[in-house]
Amino acid sequence: MPAVKSELTTPGAGRGLLDVYSNRFLLKLLVRKEIKVRYRGSVLGLLWSYVKPLMQFMIYFVALGIFLNLQKATPNYAIYLFSGIVLVNFFTETLGNATRSIVDNRDLIRKIYLPRELFPVSTVWVSAAHFLPQVVILVGASLIVGWQPSIYQLLAAVAAFIIVAILGMGLGLLFGAVNVYFRDSENIVDMILMVVTWASPVLYLWTMARDALGSWFFLYQANPMTVAVEIFHWAFWYPTLGADQIGLVELPPNLIALWLPVSLLVSLAVLFAGQLVFRRLAVHFAQEL
């Protein structure tokens, strides 16, 4: 005889992000679907993952590096610029797509029950698939100019990527859930994405922000994106500098010992808050959609 459960469970009750791990197969299917839908009818397909960041890099490099002459004050400015762009692109793509993930999958959500967290989490994996080709370009360009990183710098770069992924997932869960009820959330996220490139030292040196902000600089440094970008610079840009150039560069103090764990804790706090809000609001997703 088939086993009979002795306990009744509330329909739709779940364990949040833990259910994503339990439904790894569904997550894989969603990631494949997102990639196929995005490039359906596209001639270049996944090659757009190379073309878009390169075009963005060229615009910033010409406008800031050449016209404003920032490349003169920053050795290997091209590596400095691109190492920040690839990480910010990963965050902006994750947050933007996660915010729309629930609304875009309304038909599926109304028909069947599955862990709602699967949709914003799948956008993180899709963004990571686009992030990888950009990192390949970054590594290749860095090797050309003499990149010789230490194992600690490589591990720090991985930690920076994890921090950004956690932060993007937490904000994606928050805005993805709120967007079901208030579509203005997409406009708020669009404004955040406009600011994020300038709110971290992607296009300029961190010392410029320090000198301009003074005693308020600690708030700037507490931004996980700021720390992650600075770590990427330390891992990819700093090892390309020659002995005569290193003395001209000032690294952020306590970057690894203090600010890396602080940014990780902040990102985890955002993820916890995002998951809490998401679980509270997910109960009525089907009705609202």
Automatic annotation (TrEMBL):
Q: Which UniProt keywords apply?
A: Antibiotic resistance, Cell inner membrane, Cell membrane, Membrane, Transmembrane, Transmembrane helix, Transport
Its cellular-component GO annotations read: ATP-binding cassette (ABC) transporter complex
Membrane-crossing ranges are 54-70, 77-96, 124-147, 154-182, 188-206, 218-236, 256-278
Superkingdom, natural source: Bacteria
Q: Which GO terms describe its biological process?
A: lipopolysaccharide transport; response to antibiotic
Boundaries of every ABC transmembrane type-2 domain copy? 44-281
Q: How does it sit in the membrane?
A: Multi-pass membrane protein
Location comes to: Cell inner membrane; Cell membrane
InterPro entries cross-referenced by the UniProt entry: ABC2_TM, ABC2_TM_bact-type, ABC_2_transport
Taxonomic lineage: Bacteria, Bacillati, Actinomycetota, Actinomycetes, Micrococcales
Which PROSITE patterns does this chain map to? ABC_TM2
Q: What is this protein called?
A: Transport permease protein
Q: Write one Gene Ontology MF term.
A: ABC-type transporter activity
**Pfam families according to UniProt:** ABC2_membrane (PF01061)
Q: Which family does it belong to?
A: Belongs to the ABC-2 integral membrane protein family.
Q: Would the keyword Transport be found if you checked this record's keyword annotation?
A: yes
